[in-house]
Amino acid sequence: MSIKFVAQLIVSFVLASCSLIVAQQPSADTAGQSSSSNGAPPQGQQPEPHKNSDPIKSQQDTNSQTNTSGTSKDRLFYTLPNFLTLENAGQAPPLTTKQKFGVVTRGSFDYVLYPWYGFLSAISQAENSEPGYGQGWEGYGKRFGAAFADGTIENYMTGAILPSLLHQDPRYFQSGKGSFMRRTFYAASRNVVTRTDSGGSQFNYSEVVGGALSAAISTYSYHPKSQFVTTSTPGVLRFIPSDRTLANTAKVWGTQYGYDTITIVVKEFWPDIHRRISHRRKASEPAAINPTPTPQDR
């Protein structure tokens, strides 16, 4: 079991949870429509005042949406940085180069990522992947540094460097319309077709080429070279081949692309899940009780 497999397994589990929650949404909406089809509220309930009549404002308030920088303050499942995901594409101004680098820096060095990279490094240590790193705390430290560098380089390549050079928008704009399969296909296609700074559509060179460049930098720079290590038998050395090959680079790029595709699909449905959780929380809160004053209280 590899590190990337564990990461994909976790995200796949999250995606499955998304699909189950979203699949339940139509039944709830249908129930709400049938109960109010005659224009009157159900018995025992009072008509609720119209709150957030502006749908755009409602979406922004629900998901902690865009601020003046054109990015988000949202977090996937209240934890993972989700600063480049927006719901309202039409109202989002283009990002400047400074803003692109700023939001990528904010997400790449977020406090949540440090324990995540520590978790991945622990798995790598346990399965002794890339034996050239060795074992012990020294080997763990090298693996942690490599995992952190891999993620950071990819973030900058796909979210800041190439988007700035090619004038592409690194943000993901949620669809929010159509069936589950339609939205899933739309989200997955955004790694192939992206939005330009001028509002048009273009092949997503930032993701495809940027991912390939980050995989090449990672593979051919700080990852272990081929080496001989001593064994328990005196005078006997063990040869450890290097992973610095074109085939391994392509494998790393393909894995990163697949992981990014799964993640972007999760981003498509997270606002729906966020609103549903918030709705359930509000429904579970006890209603304020205003007892009628008694004569003694008057």
Report on this structure.
With 298 residues, the chain is mainly alpha-helical. The protein has one domain (57-272). It is 55% helix and 7% strand. The chain has eight helices and eight strands. The chain has helices spanning 3-35, 55-62, 97-108, 113-127, 136-166, 180-189, 205-220, 246-284; strands spanning 75-76, 80-81, 85-86, 172-173, 193-195, 201-203, 227-230, 237-240. The strands form four sheets. A two-stranded antiparallel ribbon has the order 1-2. Strands 3-4 form a two-stranded parallel sheet. A two-stranded antiparallel ribbon has the order 5-6. Helix 5 (136-166) runs antiparallel to helix 7 (205-220). Mean pLDDT is 77; it is low at 1-6 and 19-68.
pLDDT < 50 stretches: 1-6, 19-68
The description of the largest β-sheet is:
2 strands, antiparallel
If you average the pLDDT, what whole number results?
77
Order of helices and strands: HHEEEHHHEHEEHEEH
Rg, nearest Å:
25 Å
Give the DSSP E fraction (strand runs of 2 or more residues). 5-15%
**Count of helical stretches:** 8
End-to-end C-alpha gap: 72 Å
Q: Specify the overall morphology.
A: globular
Strand tally, please?
8
Largest sheet strand order: 1-2
Q: Helix amount, in percent?
A: 55-70%
Instruction: Give the class from helix and strand content and strand pairing.
Output: mainly alpha
